[in-house]
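Input.
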Amino acid sequence: MTGHLRTTKTDELEREMAINCYGYGRWEAPYWFIGPEQGKGPKEPADNVMRIDAWAKLGKTNLCDCRCFHEEIDDFSRHREMKLQPTWRRLMLLLMVFLGKDADIENLRTYQRDHWGMLNGETCVIELSGVASKNLKTSIDHKQFRQDRIEFIRDKRKHHRPALVIMYGISAKKDWEQIAGHELTEGEIVLCESTIFGFTRHPVAHGTRDQYWKDFGVRLREYRRPLPLATPRLP
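Output.
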């Protein structure tokens, strides 16, 4: 796929990506953030060819390293230039408040560059849709894979039992309830077994202010428990 040309092979890979690509980070991470669909940078083309190429080059895994993926699509703004991505910024703001850490702009930039969605990090940043929505050149209906993806995420959640799961986007309420296995109300917090679930509006929804995310982080912190110590690996 030299030059990022769309081919039959590209379309086949896009379908595979729509089924199997979930986002960034690692399933074992204690802090999960789940959104409805991938966003795209302002300079990215309408089709998803660069993203498809990058995903294939990185091994077609369920989860990629956020920095490595963006370098593959020639987007250096999030890591080298440390420009805060709007959705991530508010999610990180919530997380920093939840963890009792400084949430100033410089700390958020550093966290985005060094930790957010990394394969060796503490966050799992995933989406219900495996392919960014601004795709004008494919006939694939990505929603046809949604139920399978919901069940896959739910099974991973049950197995790994993250400490915190934030699910955002009001229109996906029924999907979030399937993943949580519990009825949810926007802005309310549910503690189920060892996981804290938060269902929120989208971080860039009209009228949303930073204070909403700070306040939500404070409320979530009341439910926070110390993470269990990792079991040492035998030599």
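The domain at 8-221 is CATH 3.40.470 (Uracil-DNA Glycosylase, subunit E).
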